[in-house]
Design a protein that fits this description.
Two copies of one chain form a homodimer.
Chain A lengths: L17 H5 L2 H7 L4 E5 L4 E3 L7 E5 L4 E6 L7 E6 L19 E6 L1 E7 H10 L1 H27 L2 H16 L4 E2 L3 H8 L3 H13 L3 E4 L2 E4 L2 H7 L3 H13 L16
Antiparallel strand pairs in A: 1-7, 2-6, 3-7, 4-5, 4-6, 8-10, 9-10
Helix pairs in contact in A: 3-4, 4-9, 5-8, 6-7
The structure holds a DNA duplex.
Chain lengths: 258, 258
DNA sequence: TTACGTCTGTCCACTTGTGCACATAGCCCG
DNA sequence: CGGGCTATGTGCACAAGTGGACAGACGTAA
């Protein structure tokens, strides 16, 4: 079909996804025969509202997926980012239901995929596999809850800083985020000119620099200072809930930062 | 222990909760021996962040529970309402994990309860039971996603109207909501004076009246006109996802409205 | 019936964010 | 090297929401 697809994934060389890497060898062996690995480009749509959810996508490496809620204006609102700490598609619903949101590749890169039916069949055979996916589902829920609260009470400035940090933690690139002001504004649900102004104020304070199509971070601590704590709250929940579950050297979204 | 608790719940007289009423007789029979029914008063805390989630609570009749996300200021932000269309506690996580949010009784009334372990054991024995809870989990997720988007882009006026409608649909009382301006402001995450002003403008337009501690709806259509469509979007997802699953005369949050 | 505590309506000065407009800068492509 | 597209920086008038203050209304309890 497609030269990019490599059908085989040896257990010895698991995809660079923390969820898959957390699985015990026995659990991963249940999934491995059904896991495929390929590359998705930015803005590629994984699901649209109403689509039958049949495949779970695991972002690997610097890939990033995002949940977009369609709006009456046609403006989609970005809700949560999912990177190599997790997966999208049928995590909570267990698949075979119409998607509610749009799910879209934000930053392109490798994705591991498995058919929901195969995953569910494996979950029926292994309590520990079931357990780890339930734990991740809980973390994802926490992430959305926190976003809801964040959108209700935090300033655009705080949310801008938070978003840049969250994106960097997931891609592993601690110095830049490939994003235009327009894109940033859209995902924050604000006007473009205001997003530009916020970035300008950060720039004036030496926190970051702007390039055409990218944001370069100059002072990560300064950025943390200007962000709300939502990101950290979610990170703590990830660590608490997934701690001790077949621990690997990598922990959840925070893996890149100490 | 407590005289309010009635340990027995005959299959013939199921608690007034749509999720429980949707279960097939066989599935309900698996749960019935473990279901208790009692009354909770307003502001009663069901879970606080970090609590071990062990019990699922099903609001019955006009009872309403709500998920609150704690904030650095000590101000909790209200995220989603759950009434007789659903349940709270371990729905997504399948229990035995620390709660992320505070879960609180908003409007007091009867609640059916079951220990998560009993529910999970029953789910292991019945695919259809598993299926219906996965479907509800998906609906709850949709609800939170929509809230996230709503908080990002809709005005306080729209959200106020939406919230009043959502509360009425769940309690079944189509004419009033027992809420002070202060409470309304808190749950919207805004200042009290602004909430009062919004209510005043609605009042001036003949949409509602205000009483000490309550909001009286005078013109439901007018209220719908002033609300964003978030409520309807979620309702449609409920109907689509739960349609045909052991249908009863009652459908999801919308049951009270045609 | 009165007293008290809480809820409500409204004022004001101020901050945050909107939406549009337009000049300019960066960059890819021929 | 230069044209043209898109991204960026900024100005402005306006709308939305904040937070504190305070008078008065309501309703419960004694």
């Amino acid at each position: 079909m497609d030269a990019r697809i490599s059908k085989t994934t040896e257990a010895g060389s698991r995809p660079a996804n923390n969820l898959l890497r957390r699985l015990s060898p026995a659990d991963y062996a249940l999934l491995a025969p059904h896991v495929t690995l390929d590359v998705a480009g930015p803005n590629e749509l994984l699901y649209s509202p109403g689509d039958d959810v049949q495949v779970v996508h695991f972002p690997c490496g610097p890939s990033l997926a995002t949940f977009l809620v369609p709006n009456e204006d046609g403006r989609d609102v970005e809700t949560i980012l999912v990177g190599r700490e997790g997966a999208v598609g049928g995590i909570v619903s267990e698949g075979f239901l119409p998607a509610y949101t749009r799910i879209c590749v934000k930053f392109g890169g490798p994705f591991a995929r498995i058919h929901v039916a195969k995953l569910e069949a494996a979950k029926m055979r292994s309590a520990s596999l079931r357990n780890i996916f339930a734990r991740y589902a809980d973390c994802m829920l926490a992430q959305i809850f926190q976003s809801t609260a964040c959108n209700a009470i935090h300033s655009i400035e705080q949310r801008t800083a938070k978003w840049i940090i969250a994106a960097m933690e997931r891609t592993g690139d601690e110095s830049s985020v490939p994003l235009t002001h327009e894109q940033l504004a859209t995902l924050l649900g604000v006007g473009r000119s205001y997003a530009s102004r916020v970035l300008q104020s950060f720039k004036a304070e030496g926190v970051l620099d702007t390039r055409r199509g990218a944001i370069l971070v100059r002072n990560l601590d300064g950025l943390h200072l200007r962000a709300c704590l939502c990101n950290d709250a979610v990170k703590m929940h990830f660590e608490e809930v997934l701690r001790g579950v077949y621990p690997t050297e990598e922990t959840s979204p925070s893996s890149a930062r100490g």
